[in-house]
Amino acid sequence: MTRTVVMFTGLERLWHWSQALLIILLLLTGFEVHGSYSLLGFGTAATLHVLAALALIVVWIFAIFWHLATGEWRQYAPTTRGLAAVVRFYLYGMFRGESHPFNPRPKRKHNPLQAASYLLFGVVISPLLWITGLLYLGIDLWSAPAGLPLAPVALIHVAAAYGAALFLLVHVYMITTGRTPTTHLKTMITGREESDEAARQPSQAVSSQARRGL
Amino acid sequence: MMHDNIDAVASWTPTNIVAQLLGGLSWVLIMSLAAPVQATPEILAAVDPPTADHSQFEQLQRDFANGREVTRACLDCHTEAGKQVRASIHWRWEYRHPQTGQLLGKQHVVNSFCNNVTTNLGRCTACHAGYGWDGPDFDFSDDSRVDCLVCHDTTGTYEKSPKRAGRVLQEPVKVHGHPLQPPDLGKVARNVGPTSSETCGSCHFFGGGGNGSKHGDLDTSLLDPPPALDVHMSDAGAGLECSDCHVERAHQIAGSRYQVAAHDRKGTGAPGQRRYAATCASCHGVEPHALGSDPAALYQGAKLNAHVDRIACQTCHIPAMARGGVATKTWWDWSKAGRLDADGNPIKRHDADGNLTYWTRWGEIEWGEDIEPDYRWFDGTMRYTLPDQTIDSSQSVPINRFAGHHDDPDARIWPFKMMRGKQPYDPVKDRLVYMQLFGKTEQAYWQGLEWQPAIASAMEAAGLPFSGEVGFTETRMAWPITHMVAPAEEALACGDCHAREGRMAELTGFYLPGRDSDPRLDRWAQLALGAALLAIGVHIGLRILFHRRRRYAE
């Protein structure tokens, strides 16, 4: 029996896609500023990088508020329960045509591996980028001779950016590992997911869950 | 129900509203970082009309036999002018450096062109702001020996004799093919006025052996430059003269290559105050870049203003030297001088542009146009290698040196013309030497083409020891570049320096975004990305392989 559930609300999708665009823009311009290649020219790249970063900060401020207010932050609570099965699926079961051992539902959208990687991105990579990025942006205010040297700020920022690039690479690939290569992408665009599990909770239940989180 | 509420919120928040919010907040954030706006200075209008018409002055209604007669007439009214000029470096050619204590000025320094003044007086002092400094007995206290006209001529006809110690030309001559006529001193005197790029340039454009030879940013192309060459001096630009920046006070002219104001933090000073400074900041302020009206331009303006602390204006705004079609010397090898052709005659060779590349009297010369400057941290204090100091001839000897480092708040990155060449030195005492080039005596190199007597006589005249041995050492001399400021849109772009092999490639000791990195970090990170890509590739391959196999099995 199949039914359609709303996995991602409009607000979540707006958050996800604005963040995705900004992060891609930031990586693209950021590594040009780092000197990895020449694409837009340093000045344009640096300017776009700063503007995109400021925009992303705004997005994040909204997103953090939303996560705290709705209790959605629980989606990223790490767990080892079912982790081994998920790892086994990607390394073995997937090739044999087995179905995914984790059934996403609005209350728990991410499998344990996924949740752990988002948590890593959210609490390690992003804050490193935030902190060093803001220090970098204001470096003229505190770098003056004998002040904060730019090198460590820049290098930590670059290291975290490499982490973000690695995350993005794997994340984009994992999108294709749904029932069909585009299943996950469609869900993220439409917000709706076909589910064949009759026992799944209706999406309204999640909403009341979220309300309790308030 | 909550679900509906969320949907409602989502539809109430179309992308453009969010975008507006983001833009607005970015704006606020940048505004809080941005410094106050410094407006572009208003372009000065025509020169102040004078309150005196010199053509009506009784003292000037006559003919003058020589320059000193004119000066005496000037001093009738301008009673303090002689004293003022005599206190200036234009008169003394001597400068006691306030920071280093070194006694500098043309009288004392060695350079890498015609080397030194004191033993070549009659020729060098053709550009002295005085009459008759042709020997050590010149009377520096005599007001009547001050040359007023060389700076205040407005007719363009005032010619000094090229080899007679600054005396006015008496009969027609040809200098390097250019015919010169003796001036009508009465007419010149009745038409005096403020200095101009013509009067300043009549000496300063021709140092080092000819037009543009020495500085790399001063030559006759500045007399009528297009804005692209010099946005300030072009009539289509600001239309300024030298003295608009090189302001004077009692005939002391602002601007010095011995003590450069490498980092002017004062800017324009109080409103209406005219500062005794020739710095860019004295007109443009210390936050010279306008903050644009959109967030990008605002960020860029603020970021450029933040550069002012470490980067001299000249570094970005003078993208290349010798841009006006006049070449500048870049290499002068005196060791090749003295060669004669098969018939025993002097040799003179020119390049395709007519620049002298070899002359028996000079040696070998190289020229350059449109040259990228060298960039160095510079604290403004020039130290000279004088002939009483020991040198290390095993490497290029710095004729002048300066300090400056990223960690020195007084230093900024400046552009330089690095003049290089080979010149005589004393290999026994390891010292630079003076040399006598000019003069009617046999010791003068340009007469006898022998180095030993030319140096011996010059060192003796200076009271300095000389072993009698002559060697040649490679030297370099740094000329800070500050003229030929291009329009803003032709300034360097960020990426000219923020690049792996950019203009700052030689400057180390600080982290420059776009240039610097930690190679280990890049290597490991790229390895990790590569490994991830490889793993993804393998994973895709296995998926396709097993998918086909399953389909086949079905």
UniProtKB/TrEMBL annotation, chain A:
Give the family per the record: Belongs to the HupC/HyaC/HydC family.
Query: Which InterPro entries does its entry note?
Result: Cyt_b561_bac/Ni-Hgenase, Di-haem_cyt_TM, Hydrogenase_cytochrome, Ni-dep_Hydgase_cyt-B
> Main localisation, per the record?
membrane
* SUPFAM superfamilies noted in UniProt: Transmembrane di-heme cytochromes
**The protein, known as:** Cytochrome B
**What are the boundaries of the region Disordered?**
191-214
Its membrane topology is listed as: Multi-pass membrane protein
Under PANTHER family, the record lists: CYTOCHROME YDHU-RELATED, NI/FE-HYDROGENASE 1 B-TYPE CYTOCHROME SUBUNIT
Q: What does the organism's lineage look like at the top?
A: Bacteria, Pseudomonadati, Pseudomonadota, Gammaproteobacteria, Chromatiales
What are this entry's molecular-function GO terms?
Answer: electron transfer activity; heme binding; iron ion binding
Give Gene Ontology CC terms: plasma membrane
Q: Which GO terms describe its biological process?
A: respiratory electron transport chain
* Cytochrome b561 bacterial/Ni-hydrogenase domain sequence ranges: 8-191
Q: Which organism is it from?
A: Lamprobacter modestohalophilus
The keyword Transport is annotated on this UniProt entry: yes
TrEMBL record, chain B:
Instruction: Answer whether the UniProt record assigns the keyword Nucleotidyltransferase to this protein.
Output: no
Q: Which GO terms describe its molecular function?
A: oxidoreductase activity
Respond yes or no to whether keyword Transmembrane helix is given for this record.
yes
InterPro entries per record: Multihaem_cyt_sf, Multiheme_Cytochr_ET, Octahem_Cyt_c
Segments traversing the membrane: 524-546
What is a single Pfam family found in this protein's UniProt entry? Cytochrome_cB
Xref: PANTHER family: CYTOCHROME C-TYPE PROTEIN NRFB, DISSIMILATORY SULFITE REDUCTASE SIRA
Q: Would you tell me the protein name for this molecule?
A: Tetrathionate reductase family octaheme c-type cytochrome
Name its species.
Lamprobacter modestohalophilus
